[in-house]
Amino acid sequence: MVEVEPHTDEIDGEPVSWRSGSADGTPTLYLHGVPNSSLMWLPFLERTGGVALDLPGFGDSVKAGTFPYSIAGFDGYVERFLDWLELERVNLVMHDWGAAALAFAERAPQRVERIVLINALPLFDGYSWHRLARIWRMPVLGELWMGCLTPRMLRRTLRGANAAPLPEHELQEIHRQFDFGTQRAILKLYRSVKPGTLAAAGERLGEIDSPALIVWGERDPYIPSRAAAQYAGALGGESELALLADAGHWPWLDRPDVVDTVARFLARN
Length: 269
What we know:
Layout: E1 5-11, E2 14-21, E3 28-31, H1 42-48, E4 50-53, H2 71-85, E5 90-96, H3 102-107, E6 112-120, H4 131-136, H5 141-148, H6 151-157, H7 168-176, H8 180-191, H9 197-201, E7 212-217, H10 226-234, E8 239-244, H11 251-254, H12 257-266
Parallel strand pairs: 3-4, 3-5, 5-6, 6-7, 7-8
Antiparallel strand pairs: 1-2, 2-4
Helix pairs in contact: 1-12
C-alpha cells in the first residue's frame, strides 16, 4: 500500500490543497466532482500513488467568491497546478465535475497519457439536469436548500445515489466540508452552465487520442449510462467501456474491484 500525504500551499497567493503518494512512471492526477474533495480518491492513491487535487471551492483549496467556478475556470486551474508542480505529462482520472479537465486535455493532448472517466459530467448536448441540480441552478431556491442542509437531510438526499447506502463516514466527511465557501462554489458552478456550454466544452474530444477507460455505475440517478457510450464514441483514442449494473454514482463504493480495474489500466505503458 502506498503511503498518502496531505499537502497545503499557495499558488499566486491562493490556497491549494492536494494529496499525493509516490508512483513509478507517469503520475496520475485524480479530479473529484461535487460535493467531494481529494479525500474520496484515497483508495486509489493507496493503490496507484499519484496526486489528487482539491478543486477550487472544495476541501482546503481556494474558495474565494471571485474565482470563476466553471468548466473553463477548472480547466485553467488544473493547468496552473500541473505547471506549478512541474508535471509535464500525466494520466487523468476524473469523476463527475472533474471531467472539466477534459477541456485541458483538448488544449494540450500531448500532456495526457491515459484517461479514466468515472460517471463523469456529460460534455454533450441533451443532458437533463437531475432534480437536485435543478434546485441548485435556481436563484434563491438553491441558497435556501444550502442553508437548510443538515446531516439527516444530506443522508436523505444521497439515498439511492449508489446501489448500497453510502458509508456513514463518507456522509460525515461530505457534510463536514460543506461550508459556506463550498456551498457558494457549487451554486456558481451549476449556474455557469448555459445552453450549449457542455457541448462547447466537449466539441474537441476527438482531438484527445489517449487510450481511455470509461467506468460507469448504471444505477447512477444523476448521470445516465448513455453518456458512457457517448464518451466512447467521441474520444479520439481507443476506449474501453466498463458498465456496472450493480453500482451507482460512486461505483467503487459498491464495487471495490473498480480500484484494481483502474490501477491495471493505468499500469499499461
